[in-house]
Amino acid sequence: MAKGKNQHVVPKGDDWAVRGAGNEKATKIVSTQKEAIKIARDIAINQGSEMFIHGENGQIRERNTYGKDNFPPKG
Predict the structure, then answer these.
(1) Which of 30, 45, 47, 75 could make an S-S bridge to 35, C-beta 3.0–4.6 Å?
(2) Backbone angles phi and psi of 31, in degrees to 5
(3) Phi, psi at residue 4, to the nearest 5°?
(4) What's the CA gap between 37 and 10, in Å, rounded?
(5) Residue 72: closest CA among 1, 8, 4, 21
(6) What is the reported pLDDT for 69?
(7) How far is CA 7 from the centre of its chain?
């Protein structure tokens, strides 16, 4: 399972924020979702955690796992 905090890319006004799960304060606020995704992905890879990308409506639209997967795909 993930070791570090899961990272969330969330809308924040006209900007986008990267926020660790359970944190009230954003790790970083940037002007584009693309930039926020890159930052969140780098943190999630470094921590071996997951990254959740939220759409403008706040709903999760994508989820990526980095690190050891306890349930890898069979095949």
Answers:
(1) 30
(2) -85, -20
(3) -90, -175
(4) 10
(5) 1
(6) 66
(7) 3
Domain ranges for the chain, please list them: 7-58
Which 3 state secondary structure label does DSSP give 5?
coil
φ/ψ of 42, rounded to 5, equals -60, -45
10-residue mean pLDDT series, the chain (75 residues): 83 97 96 98 96 96 85 73
Write out the DSSP string of 15-72: EEEEEETT-SS-SEEES-HHHHHHHHHHHHHHHT-EEEEE-TTS-EEEEEE-S--SSP
pTM for the model: 0.85
When computed from its CA atoms, the radius of gyration of the chain, rounded to whole angstroms, is 12
